[in-house]
Write a structure and sequence with these properties.
heterodimer; A: 498 residues; mainly alpha; Fumarate Reductase Iron-sulfur Protein, Chain B, domain 2; 2 domains; 3-stranded parallel beta sheet; globular; B: 247 residues; Fumarate Reductase Cytochrome B subunit; 11 helices
């Protein structure tokens, strides 16, 4: 098993004392030249990379008010220092949001501020928090900007709203642009561009999988629930993370969506061309890739002639869809204006439940004692419904409509204060296992509380990354691996098709 | 006119120019730099009025900081509120006659100086005592706290220790003289000279230091954006560069 210590779950969470350098060794595999080529970056560290990195940083800051303001405004008050799950789980001070930002801020200050240039010229840049771009700095960047899941929890608590996610995205873009990329994200993005989804699942395999699902559901319920692909003229294009097609427990969520559409009589289809909701371009801060990856969805919607676009259970994909699609691939004037574009599957199910359009047997979920893990990108970077905070209300209302036993985790670990699962932001890779396990600590402590007090046995999530991450890390904390499940798996269990 | 008066006159003209031009330039840059994507930290207001309310809470009662850490909030808010009263009180040295409101605020502004000292002292103590905050502090972070503490302390000494009182009438004449380009002699009391030199230093470093958080917070996209990405198509900077063709 692991050659590091699994953090102990404490009765009350404590802020650990600083232990310098405990995670300096944590680095994901570096992208090979072919992975870099797939996303349009140089294959290896370019000549003169120091200078080019500084130049690229300058371009990014010039094009982003967020970076400009965030890099200038931090007063080092310390409010964020105990907010990051990776700091709480590792004690490494460079995992404190402000310290992570400072890795980039010091280079910005050295090259793009008067104070940094002056004290740099005097040979004392450190006095004003400035530093040159050196190999040591680059190593730190590669290590610690891949210990940020871009969950935005720090941005909730910062008095200026400084969002470390923006800074870590910029850092990854700078590194990519000089030829230092992360294998996991860049390889996956290459597959999306080439094949259409993160898993590299080609069309025949996708069709085959979905036919198998139709048979499974038929065996289970005796009802012909369809999983259509590339069906022209369908009302709804469903775009969902490809993990929903075969990973456990994701797949039970997909079955839930299909049952909802079936019972509501909504015609829907998947697209083999755009068979992926995920858009890892956000994780690496690449505007070009973000746009081209999103553009597939617009193209698929046009080709299939659908009226609505619905997004499945996926955290960062919902952020990209909700917050960025209209900007990147809008306007959506070719879709039915009666529905928001895009719509979250939870919004669809919630509306149907409100209208009494779904036949539900709540008792079918009575063996489950459920808690809900708010996914970071849904909670802090998007919305559902038409009121602020709808993203917290709607999933919980769905759960309470389809099940009898629901319990919230402690208030400072849910809603906008939710803790990341530990695997978001492009870190869901086995080469970062130690980080993922340690980063899950705050969520595991919160979970333990409802397990002890309320006998919770079902951890419900609406994000493909959360589901995969929890499947992997729950056993390390002595929880059963299968206690993580989709929200629409609960719907699937309770819905009465006949 | 004495060399001292001329030196301080030049110092304050220069400091004012640096402060106004420097901060003005930064505000111009913040306003001009595009925000290509919608990134409000949600839940966020759905209307512009809602955003004004959110920002108002942020800059008056430090709402996010309150959620974050009660100690930093107490010290930080105490310092800023006290600083506001003290600055407000100081308007009396630049206006003739003194505005009624400024006159009324005088006793509060006088004692608020102790609030500044307490707030700054608390913040500095955290910077030294809390290991996480100590780790993130650089020399300039300590320097700015010391500078503010020294400004407040020298002010308190002048105000509350009779032996250190300065000729406040003459001082006011000096500043009014600066404003109307009619130079008047500056009193030579050492504590006053220290106080004024430090204030000028603060004005000079303002636009090149983290004190930019003051204008910065108003431009922070996570706080000032409306949550209406689906309803209104937002484009700026690189996202405005090209729009997909009509179907």
């Amino acid at each position: 098993m692991a050659d590091f210590e699994i953090p102990a779950l404490k009765e009350y969470p404590v802020i650990p004392p600083v232990k310098v350098g405990t995670m300096a060794h944590s680095k994901p595999f570096v992208a090979k030249p072919e992975h870099q080529a797939g996303v349009g970056y140089p294959g290896e560290l370019v000549d003169n990379w120091e200078e080019k990195a500084v130049t690229r940083l300058g371009e990014l800051v010039k094009g982003s008010r967020a970076l400009q303001v965030f890099l200038d405004s931090c007063v080092k008050c310390g409010a964020c220092t105990d907010k990051c799950h990776y700091y709480l789980g590792t004690s490494d001070p460079k995992n404190m949001p402000v310290a992570r930002q400072d890795l980039l801020r010091k280079v910005y200050r050295r090259h793009y501020t008067f104070a940094g240039k002056l004290f740099g010229a005097l040979g004392m840049p450190g006095l004003v928090g400035a530093a040159d771009m050196t190999k040591e700095v680059l190593d730190d960047w590669y290590s610690y900007f891949h210990q940020c899941s871009q969950c935005r929890r720090c941005s909730v608590f910062c008095p200026y709203g400084i969002d470390t996610a923006e800074i870590s995205m910029a850092a990854r873009e700078v590194m990519d642009s000089v030829g230092l990329g992360q294998k996991y994200c860049n390889e996956i993005l290459g597959k999306v561009h080439k094949i259409g989804n993160n898993l590299g699942l080609p069309e025949p395999a996708l069709v085959d999988t979905l036919e198998g699902l139709e048979e499974d559901v038929k065996d289970d319920t005796g009802v012909d629930v369809r999983f259509p692909v590339d069906q022209k003229g369908a009302d709804v294009l469903l775009v969902t993370p490809s993990a929903d097609f075969f990973a456990e427990p994701h797949i039970d969520g997909l079955i839930g969506y299909a049952k909802v559409f079936h019972q509501a009589g909504i015609s829907w289809t998947l697209s083999s061309y755009a068979s992926e909701a995920a858009n890892f371009s956000m994780f690496i801060g690449s505007g070009d890739n973000l746009k081209s990856t999103a553009m597939r969805i617009r193209q698929a919607a046009l080709d299939l002639g659908v009226k609505r676009i619905v997004v499945g259970e996926c955290g960062h994909a919902w952020r990209v869809a909700y917050s960025f699609w209209n900007t990147l691939i809008g306007p959506f004037d070719f879709l039915d204006p009666k529905y928001p574009v895009p719509q979250h599957i939870c919004e669809v199910t919630y509306d149907l439940l409100q209208r009494g359009a779904l036949k539900i047997d709540k008792e079918a979920n009575d063996h489950r004692r459920i808690t809900f893990h708010d996914s970071c990108n849904v909670s802090r970077a998007s919305r559902m419904g038409n009121i602020p905070g709808g993203q917290f209300i709607i999933p919980r209302e769905i759960i309470k409509s389809v099940a009898n036993h629901y319990f919230d985790m402690p208030a400072n670990t849910i809603h906008e204060s939710t803790y990341c699962c530990g695997g978001g932001g492009g870190l869901l890779t086995d080469d970062l296992m130690e980080l993922r396990i340690k980063g899950a600590l705050p969520r595991m402590e919160a979970l333990q509380q409802v397990v002890e007090e309320n006998d919770v046995n079902y951890l419900c999530a609406i994000c493909a990354i959360c589901k995969s991450q929890f499947t992997k890390v729950l056993p390390y904390y002595k929880f059963p691996m299968d206690m993580i499940g989709s929200l629409h798996q609960l719907v699937s269990t309770a819905i009465q098709l006949k | 006119m004495s060399a001292l008066t001329i030196t301080y006159a030049i110092l304050f003209y220069a400091a004012t120019a640096i402060l106004v031009i420097g901060v003005g330039r930064k505000i111009f840059i913040y306003a001009r730099t595009p925000a290509p994507l919608k990134i409000p930290t949600t839940p966020a207001p759905l209307t512009k009025t809602g955003v004004v309310w959110r920002m108002l809470k942020e800059v008056t009662v430090f709402e996010s900081l309150f959620k974050s850490n009660k100690w930093i909030w107490i010290f930080g808010w105490l310092f800023h509120a006290a600083l506001f009263l003290v600055l407000f009180r100081h308007i009396r040295y630049f206006t003739e006659p003194v505005w009624t409101l400024v006159a009324l605020a005088q006793p509060f502004g006088k004692y608020a100086a102790f609030g500044m000292l307490a707030g700054l002292g608390g913040l500095w103590a955290r910077r030294i005592l809390v290991d996480r905050v100590r780790y993130i502090s650089s020399a300039s972070d300590h320097f700015i706290l010391i500078l503010l503490l020294a400004i407040a302390a020298s002010g308190v000494v002048m105000k509350f220790i009779p032996a250190a009182h300065t000729d406040i009438i003459a001082l006011k004449a000096f500043f009014l003289g600066l404003m109307y380009f009619d130079l008047q002699p500056l009193p030579g009391d050492p504590v006053l000279l220290i106080h004024l030199a430090l204030v000028a230093a603060l004005m000079i470093i303002f636009p090149i230091s983290k004190l930019l958080h003051a204008p910065g917070v108003f431009f922070s996209p996570t706080r000032n954006q409306v949550d209406n990405a689906r309803e209104h198509r937002h484009v700026a900077g690189w996202t405005a560069a090209e729009t997909p063709g009509k179907p």
